[in-house]
Please model this.
Amino acid sequence: MAGTRYWGRLAAMAMTAALAACQGSLMGGSPEGVPVAVESIDGAPAPVQTALLGELSTAASERKVDLVGSGTEARYRVRGYISTATEDGQTKVSYVWDVFDAQKRRAKRLEGSRPITLASGSISAIDKEALAKLAQSSMDEIAEFLSASKSVQTAEVSDDDNPVALQ
Model:
């Protein structure tokens, strides 16, 4: 009986490893299949938020990130914050993206800044090109995080005396 249990476990582990290898080759390194919802973008007026969301959507599509509506079930939810500051005559747009898991715990904080040219000192004057660059670099980081955090879940082999499907 102990020998049967040993071979049953060995076979189950081999099948699990083969399945994981198969799934890993299909999914490894890709953010595909991990739904992400952008819940909010604070710090900018509504027209800038809307334009940035459009640019994020385009950048997500290019990176195979599954961006879904905020009311949709998602594995991760993103909240963004953007601001501008001028120092020594140079204006920069700064961003922070907080990525939360399904249990509403912050899984990752992504942040950075980029120099931009604004017609006025206000974030309302940010142009489409600057928003596109911001969205591209932001989505690069989000896609990298999703790819790194994506894991294959496999069933664990139980330690009970009932051999399964190998008799």
Remarks:
- The beta strands are 35-42, 66-68, 76-87, 90-101, 106-116.
- DSSP finds three helices and five strands in the chain.
- The chain has a mean pLDDT of 76.
- Residues 98 and 109 are 5 Å apart (CA to CA).
